[in-house]
Amino acid sequence: MPAAVIIGAQWGDEGKGKATDLLAGRIDYVVKFNGGNNAGHTVVIGDEKYALHLLPSGILTPGVTPVISNGVVIDIEVLFQELEALSARGVDVSKLRISANAHVITAYHRTLDKVTERFLGKRQIGTTGRGIGPTYADKINRVGIRMQDLFDENILRQKVEGALDQKNHLLVKVYNRRAIAVDEIVTELLSYAERLRPMVVDTALELHQALERGETVLFEGGQATMLDVDHGTYPFVTSSSATSGGAATGSGIAPNRIDRVIGIVKAYTTRVGSGPFPTELFDASGDFLRENGHEFGTTTGRPRRCGWYDAPIARYSARINGVTDYVMTKLDVLTGLERIPVCVAYEVDGVRVDEVPVSQSDFHHATPIYEEFAGWSEDISGARTFEDLPKNAQDYVLAIEAMSGARISAIGVGPGRDAIIARHDLLD
Ligand code: GDP
Ligand code: IMO
Ligand code: MG
């Protein structure tokens, strides 16, 4: 029985939530290993639509044990709100396990996220404003607060004091904001402790034991490869490791335990926030993708930037993550286009470049070299086998597969749970 990782291969919102849901019936544990409530996963089950932020999407499947592992940053109030909202809709959330080593997002992280963005002005990242960056900065800077600190008032107070010491100078003197009182933070965090206590465990040990028993563990990545702090379009990235390697460091499960890496790609590309995006469209085609694909953020409601499929990015993701299988989502959104351009390489300063350039400045002014494919007009949302697809849609998928560095094992043709064409077993 395998351990598998799901990762976003582009700039997020590829449909990772739906892909997790697709596999959830076959897994025992689902683990969120990076990011926090910057993520937004929409899962449609029948007439019900769920939006998950901090909890892994797999929580929707009865019997699966959901885990928030050490690589995640947790806004505890958001956690409770999400648990309550799901409970109210009949989802069993009682099995949730949270790592004692996961870091806590506090009010000062949220404040710093917003004020630093404002301060950056035109250079802003366009963060989700959830305090993600400042919380990871504290983690790396060794002044973070971890879940386990909530169970020791003395330690908690010392750590909050340490963290606020510098930050209050910054808030008051640089950003012209009010200082944050240590007591305010400590009191709030302590008020969560009793409710959290039964959930907070050694998740690395529990996951290891599950794998030893032969159970199946699915690691569910938030964000995506091009937003990864090491491998993405830095500095226009999130602050965590969203690539498959992050599943190991973010959970304490060794890389050699991971058998499958499932990359999720959209049949086109979207991005939220600032940063380079070579195939971005500013014309009616962009509007077509945004309207047809309902490309508005699950977390912030922001309209997503839209563009054509970028094959060098898919190849890059295949390499960085070791993708064994791709799930291509939203093929149905392309229905009705006469011609569908696909970026096969870039031109940088008059020179053809076949792979994602290592220099960020080059990537910023890379212009796509397109190959065009014939579109289709038939409704494909009812297709359940590859052969059900019109010939032109089949050709589009096969051409993309040949350029993307891994086989395309499933194809999404609609938001619903069953709107999928399976070509190969994702776990085998
Ligand atoms: P995630 O962050 O990667 O989980 O993706 P989001 O949930 O933010 O965005 C993906 C959106 O596309 C969601 O609204 C899904 O319901 C929807 N979706 C997923 N797969 C498909 C598909 O194959 N076709 C269509 N039309 N929508 C899809
Ligand atoms: P899912 O998991 C798309 C983007 C933000 C911003 C940058 C940094 O739903 O795919 P942050 O708040 O993380 O510091 O913002 O990253 N971003 C996402 N874009 N999907 C996401 O998550 C994202 N999470 C963060 O828009 O550009
Ligand atoms: Mg999303």
Topology (elements, then pairings):
Blueprint: E1 3-8, H1 16-24, E2 29-32, E3 41-45, E4 48-52, E5 65-68, E6 73-74, H2 76-88, E7 97-99, E8 103-104, H3 107-120, H4 132-140, H5 153-174, H6 182-196, E9 200-201, H7 203-212, E10 217-220, H8 244-249, E11 258-266, E12 269-271, H9 284-292, E13 305-307, E14 309-310, H10 311-321, E15 325-329, E16 339-348, E17 351-353, H11 360-364, E18 367-374, H12 391-404, E19 407-412, E20 420-422
Parallel strand pairs: 1-10, 1-11, 2-5, 2-10, 5-7, 6-8, 7-9, 11-15, 14-16, 15-19
Antiparallel strand pairs: 3-4, 12-13, 16-17, 16-18, 19-20
Helix pairs in contact: 3-4, 5-6
Characterize the structure shown.
The chain has 428 residues and is of the alpha/beta class. It has three domains: 3-99 and 205-262, Adenylosuccinate Synthetase, Chain A, domain 1; 103-194, Adenylosuccinate Synthetase, subunit A, domain 2; 265-422, Adenylosuccinate Synthetase, Chain A, domain 3, CATH 3.90.170. 32% of the residues lie in helices and 21% in strands. It is built from twelve helices and 20 strands. It has helices spanning 16-24, 76-88, 107-120, 132-140, 153-174, 182-196, 203-212, 244-249, 284-292, 311-321, 360-364, 391-404, and strands at residues 3-8, 29-32, 41-45, 48-52, 65-68, 73-74, 97-99, 103-104, 200-201, 217-220, 258-266, 269-271, 305-307, 309-310, 325-329, 339-348, 351-353, 367-374, 407-412, 420-422. The chain has a ten-stranded mixed beta sheet with strand order 9-7-5-2-10-1-11-15-19-20, sandwiched between helices. A hairpin with a 2-residue loop joins β3 (41-45) and β4 (48-52). The longest helix has 22 residues, at 153-174. The chain is globular. The mean pLDDT is 96.
